[in-house]
Amino acid sequence: MISRFFNGGRRSFDSLSEQEILALAISAEEDDSRIYLAYADGLRDEFPQSAKIFEDMAKEETHHRAILIDLHKKRFGDHIPLIRREHVRGYYERKPDWLVRPLGIEKARAQAAEMERQAHRFYVAAAQRSHDADTRKLLGELAIAESGHEKKALDLEARHTPEDVREEEEETERKQFILTYVQPGLAGLMDGSVSTLAPIFATAFATHNTWTTFLVGLAASIGAGISMGFTEVASDDGVISGRGSPIKRGLATGIMTTVGGLGHALPYLIPDFWTATVIAFVVVFIELWAIVWIQNRYMETPWSRAIFQVVLGGSLVFAAGMLIGNA
User: Where does CATH 1.20.1260.10 sit in the chain?
Assistant: First the structure.
């Protein structure tokens, strides 16, 4: 009773009977089949060929489940005990990343490979626990099958996703990454870096007080981050535009907006005004060039155009702050 309390009500793997190990294997194969089908469903719209890979893997898990059920009937009868992963202490768990949309193709492939490795380790341990020859033989064969699934997945990829299809899917995923994270994050960084220049430097040159300047910069940065984040979430649910989760886009925008503003506000934690201001100038220069690089790297904006837009906009806002601060 005490051990059950400290273990959260979970059983240790060593305490399971052979019937319970078979029941656990059956439920695990059923869960994995459903997960693969969920991956297929999440990928079907954008990666239809890769979705077929996971459909075939789900069929393989269903076949394993049927074999295990037949063995259970033969040895223990029709009643299969209800035991699942979460009932066994230390047993591997499946993270519910198949519920996330959009579902990244590389993440799905990596998770599938990890699932097969975990299943292989389970069947090796289960076979070692079994004293029945037929059961031990089957579990050993399933361990070998699971270890070979990575090669089978590669074979399925070669059949369903030849080189041209993979290149197309990778380009689709790259565009989705840009739409969901890079574009909103870039908008936030530009807003945070540029829009906070005026209030921060206006305060700095009006007061020559570094602590006051820092507080104004902190308030402006956090306020802009919250505002931009909520605006991004409310502006587009991503269904029609295909830009992905509004929550992810909102977080990317809000965080990068705050970071952009804090970059040149934090130097004003330094008590000496001119030291803080010179460092803030350097940070602004770095921020603007980071924006230019991101625009060129991900948005394919020519260097000359990106530099003109960012430097001109930043210079105008900075000049406005200086004029107002010295008025």
Answer: 2-161
Residue 114 tokens, joined? 């990890």
Per-residue model confidence as pLDDT tens digits over 198-241: 788 888 888 889 899 899 888 988 888 888 888 878 777 666 56
As given in the structure block, the two tokens for residue 223 are: 């306020």
Angle at 88 between CA 82 and CA 91, to 5 degrees: 125
CB–CB of 141/119 below 8 Å? no
> In the predicted model, what is the mean pLDDT of residues 64-84?
88
Structure confidence at residue 5 (pLDDT): 38
Tell the burial category of 303 from Cβ atoms under 10 Å away from its Cβ (0-12, 13-18, 19+). Answer: exposed
Of residues 218 and 155, more confidence is placed in 218
Q: Which letter, b or e, does each residue of 204-230 get, where b requires 16 or more Cβ atoms within 10 Å of its Cβ?
A: bbbeeebeebbebbbebbbebbeebbe
Q: Are 268 and 211 in contact (CB under 8 A)?
A: yes
Secondary structure element (H or E) that encloses residue 11, with its range: strand 11-12
Q: 2-161 sits in which CATH class?
A: mainly alpha
Q: Give the H/E segment covering residue 77.
A: none
H/E segment holding residue 89: strand 88-89
Q: Please say if the pLDDT value at position 161 is more than 50.
A: yes
Burial class (CB in 10 A: 0-12, 13-18, 19+), 31: middle
Query: In the structure encoding, which two tokens stand for residue 131, read together?
Result: 């004293």
106-115, long-range: CB < 8 A, 24+ apart: 106/173, 108/39, 108/42, 108/43, 108/50, 108/54, 109/50, 109/153, 111/39, 112/36, 112/39, 112/54, 112/57, 112/153, 113/150, 113/153, 115/32, 115/35
Query: What secondary structure does DSSP assign to 39-60, as a single string?
Result: HHHHHTTT-HHHHHHHHHHHHH
Give the pLDDT mean for 260-264: 84
